[in-house]
Amino acid sequence: MIEFNWDWAFAWEVLPLLLDACLVTLQATLFGSLLAIATGLILALLRRSRFKTLSYSAYWWMEFVRSTPLLVQIYFLYYVAPEWGLSLSPMMTGVIALGLHYGAYLSEVFRSGIDGVDRGQWEASIALNLSPYRTYRDVILPQALRSMIPASGNYIIAMFKETPQLSAITLLEMLQLAKIMGSENFRYLEPFTLVGLIYLVLSLVASAGVRQAERRFPKEGFTLS
Amino acid sequence: MPLNEILDVLLGGAMVTIKIVIMALPLAALMAFAAGLMRLSEQPLLRGLAVIYMEFFRGTSALIQLYWIYFVLPLFGISIDAITAGVVALGLNIGAYGSEVVRGGLLSIDKGQTEAAIALNFTPRQRLWRILLPQALVGMMPPFGNLAIELVKATSLVSLITIADLTYRAKSLADMTLQVEQIFALVLVFYFLMAQVLTLGIRALEKRLGKGMQRGGLT
Q1: Coiled-coil stretches, from where to where (chain A) (predicted)?
Q2: What pLDDT, on a 0 to 100 scale, did the predictor assign at position A142?
């Protein structure tokens, strides 16, 4: 049995490298969440569509994406996209997989946010002869945003915590690096513990930020543009 | 490779996945109720422990927890096989999320119920078991269902510590046969079906637990 001891020298040696790799993790999260927000919004609008085919397809897409594992979706994209003539780098694959996966979650948030806006607001927009685009942009979304932001923030934090799965397609993010260093030095304790702590600190800070945002936002919504 | 052989291998993997779910689910439920009740306790020590457990397992990532348990625990002299590591990591992870459901469910019960139980001289234990939990369980069911699906999805992570579950077999079959499209599409459908079955089960359970709840015009 190997004696359990924490090696500070080794920990200090790996920490800066892990923090560098943290940028890759954050990059994947950032681009993934931008894609997720776009996908989520499109899905939410499709689900509100008058055409049954559109709204049902959006519903089943969402249901399917949400009930299958992200890891398998990542593999699917990474191995099947080349068959379809699309060679994606691990980073691109990761961003698309995260974006589509969390887009399905965010669509529910957006949909309930939009549904939460008082009916009178829609009626007033019709009475004022606003186009559907202006109704959404100037009337509905600014009011819906208040309830959408905290929930979306939580999903983005959840996305951040799923980025280690991208190590399975060899993206060199924190976990992949920790694993490499662990196997090179036959010491997994320090790298894995440090990666865990970095995730813990970042997600605690981020959830405190989401709570702050929730408290700060005006009750009546705010103007876009 | 013909499709029926692929299906055979994948079905074997699905059984492993289901086995892990069946083992991790009770652990997750136990942790959820223990931590959820502890957070509502009057003892600051119990509350603190529950908060540390919850923040720790929700704040770090499931895959890192799995690796940590699998690769690092042996250094403490606790050597465990991959399946146990998977079950423990997933159970503790999902349990941490579940503890919030338990707490929220209990807090959502009308205060009058607690007061009435006190007025009727119920012991705290009776109050919890006979008054609060039966009512709270109905409301907890839908979020528990979602967590159960999260658990099924999270089992795919154990493929990364060499357990031959559905995902692992799909990956190695795909590497071997290069029929990637069919294999991964099939696997996604498998997971989807498992999640649908769980959803139906939870819905039935919710109906059963909710029997008689709406009577008398109160709610």
Answers
A1: none
A2: 87
* Residue A78 near residue A15 (C-beta atoms within 8 A): no
d(CA A182, CA A62): 38
Mutation target to probe the B interface, by most B beta carbons within 10 A, among A79, A86, A157 is A79
Question: pLDDT by residue (tens digit) across B143-187?
Answer: 999 999 999 999 999 999 999 999 999 999 999 998 999 999 999
Tell if the CB–CB gap between B67 and A168 is shorter than 8 Å: no
**Alpha helix (H) residue ranges in chain B:** 3-39, 44-59, 62-67, 82-107, 111-119, 124-126, 133-154, 166-177, 180-209
Q: How many CA atoms lie within 13 A of B190 on its CB side?
A: 29
State how many domains chain A has: 1
Q: Which of A1, A75, A196 sits opposite B60 (nearest CB)?
A: A196
In a domain, A50, yes or no: yes
* Predicted complex ipTM: 0.91
With beta carbons less than 8 A apart as the criterion, state whether B28 and B99 touch. no
Count structural domains, chain B: 1
A162 touches B at CB < 8 Å: yes
Q: How confident is the model at residue A222 (pLDDT cuts 50, 70, 90)?
A: low
Assign residue B104 the CATH number of its domain. 1.10.3720.10
Examine residue A119 and state whether it is found in any structural domain, yes or no. yes
Give A1: exposed, middle or buried? Use CB within 10 Å, 0-12, 13-18, 19+.
Answer: exposed
Question: In Å, how far are A81, A94, A179 from B183, measured between CA atoms?
Answer: 14, 20, 28
CB A206 within 8 A of CB A157: yes
